[in-house]
Write a structure and sequence with these properties.
- By secondary structure, the protein is an all-alpha fold.
- It has three domains: 122 residues, no CATH class; 127 residues, no CATH class; 190 residues, no CATH class.
- It has 24 helices and two strands.
- A two-stranded parallel ribbon has the order 1-2.
- Helix 1 packs antiparallel against helix 2.
- The longest helix has 27 residues.
- It is globular, with a radius of gyration of 27 Å.
């Protein structure tokens, strides 16, 4: 037992040395001397984690250190998980450098060395960590006013409204955000600990751990400070990837999540706004697709409300002068467009003008590099939404085909052809057969081909995203490919363009527009 006793003593000392100083809570506002002390602690933590690894490897029986292993999880998790990395996991979108820099500031104690070592540490007993550590931390604070802490279920309105002496929680609703009721914030890195727990729960264990996982998640998500909302969003996203949909619905947590995610859309004036808005929209789409049957009225209504009221009315109306926020919504929109499908047609009047605006409007001073880069990113983000919108709303594209075509041609001319030394050398990768009969975009036609509203481009649009979203050259190259893909998608939806407007425009500007439009298959065969 002597070796184990020695290791337990060493382990206890190491865990105490790895407790994150409270000064990191105010790291951004710290004085230079204070920040230097914190930075020095962060550097030294790598050596402590390396020593912790050796101590754990030397233990003969992990069972004898059951309680200490729980402490290992609590101490190591804040080094293993950070918002910047989690924000980039499983995302089909560009990752912007300025967003990454903002998020890195949320975990200033992490160094590359400490993160690598923390990932190597193995721990167990998720339920025990939730029960004995996380739950005890939140027990010292006021509980979430809409959740039963015993079952993890959503409380009925009747109980919330009743006085506490009658079994209700109305006083907790009022005191939820009081300073004395938020003592859990004294634990720096708590969000990472909860994320580790959720990340380690298997689907078959959720039923047993539900009452332990949900209350802290909802407390973070509904907190008034954005940094805790951010962790709540990241944890909710991880939960939605593995939690049984039936459990979300049966416990009423799907409704609470819907409300909480929607409220986050009002946070539009802080540095974290682009990230939390995009995550809120993405998690909402995932929640609706998980908890509503495909093709159901419930799913259609939820997605329609999110698109029409949540994005078009509540965000775009107030963020016309905040391109980073608009870009964040555009990054979240492709999944929503694909999920809502042809139901997007009712929103074309609000969507199309917003999506083509970056294509036809150009920065007032293009000599400013950051503004130029942001505008390129906005154009690409708009096209990543416009292309699937054309596809799913193909039966209604005849009303918008000229508006979209005009914007695409203008953008190509200004951003691609005018900046190319040899625009005639540009060539579209798309090949398209001309229609054999009148297309459905011509009024009065009766013998019309059926347009597949879910047509998929031969090349995945994700493959033409810029490899480096912060590079002007990569963005310019990607923009040209997206514009070419847009004319191809538009021709799929409105085939008569290939025999009328496309040839007409090519005849007028063959040098400039040659590379924009898809190549006729007849020319390919002739070659």
């Amino acid at each position: 037992m002597a070796p184990n006793t020695l290791n337990q003593d060493s382990l206890s000392h190491l865990l105490e040395s790895l407790a994150i100083p409270l000064g990191f809570k105010e790291y951004d506002d710290a004085l230079p001397d204070e920040r230097a002390v914190l930075d020095d602690w962060a550097r030294r933590s790598t050596a402590s984690l390396e020593q912790l690894k050796r101590v754990l490897e030397a233990v003969d029986s992990k069972e004898s250190l059951l309680q200490d292993m729980e402490r290992v999880v609590v101490v190591v998790s804040p080094f293993a998980y950070d918002p910047s990395t989690l924000n980039e996991e499983k995302e089909e979108r560009p990752v912007y450098e300025e967003e990454r820099n903002v998020l890195k500031g949320e975990s200033p104690w992490i160094t590359p060395g400490s993160k690598s070592l923390a990932k190597e540490q193995k721990a167990a007993l998720v339920k025990q960590v939730l029960e004995r550590t996380v739950k005890s931390i939140f027990r010292a604070s006021n509980p979430h006013p809409h959740i039963d802490p015993v079952t993890g279920r959503s409380l009925p309105p009747s109980r919330i409204a009743r006085p506490p002496q009658q079994g209700g929680l109305s006083s907790l609703t009022q005191d939820f955000f009081d300073g004395g009721g938020q003592r859990w914030k004294e634990n720096v890195g708590l969000g990472a600990v909860i994320y580790w727990c959720i990340d380690s729960i298997s689907p078959d264990v959720y039923h047993d751990a539900w009452h332990l996982a949900v209350p802290p998640l909802m407390t973070l998500l509904d907190d008034y400070q954005a940094r805790y909302k951010l962790w709540g969003l990241l944890i909710a996203g991880r939960m939605l990837r593995s939690a049984p949909p039936s459990l979300l619905h049966k416990t009423g947590i799907d409704g609470l999540l819907k409300t909480s995610l929607r409220k986050i859309l009002a946070h539009q004036d802080i540095p974290l706004s682009p990230t939390i808005l995009r995550l809120s929209l993405s998690q909402s789409v995932r929640l609706f697709t998980l908890t509503t049957p495909e093709g159901s009225k419930g799913r259609f209504d939820a997605l329609s409300d999110l698109l029409g009221q949540g994005i078009v009315n509540d965000i775009w109306t107030y963020t016309f002068d905040k391109p980073e926020l608009v870009r964040a919504t555009l990054n979240a929109l492709p999944a929503l467009i694909r999920s809502l499908g042809v139901g997007c047609t009712r929103f074309l009047q609000g969507l199309v003008p917003q999506l083509i605006r970056p294509l036809v409007n150009h920065p007032a001073n293009q000599a400013q590099l950051p503004l130029d880069l942001l505008h390129l990113q906005m154009q690409i983000a708009s096209l990543t939404v416009l292309i699937p919108l054309i596809q799913v709303c193909a039966p209604r594209m005849h009303d918008w085909r000229f508006t979209i075509l005009d914007a695409v041609v203008r953008c190509w001319t200004t951003m691609i052809a005018d900046r190319s030394n040899n625009p005639s050398s540009l060539s579209s990768p798309w090949v398209l057969s001309p229609p054999e009969v009148d297309s459905d975009d011509e009024e009065g036609g009766t013998d019309q081909p059926i347009i597949n509203a879910k047509a998929i481009l031969p090349v995945d649009p994700q493959s033409i995203l810029p490899s480096n979203p912060s590079s002007l050259a990569d963005n310019s190259s990607s923009l040209s490919k997206f514009l070419q893909a847009a004319t191809y998608a538009l021709a799929q939806a409105c085939p008569s363009l290939t025999t009328a407007e496309y040839p007409l425009l090519l005849n007028k500007e063959p040098t400039v527009l040659k590379g924009l439009f898809p190549r006729p298959r007849s020319l390919e065969l002739g070659a």
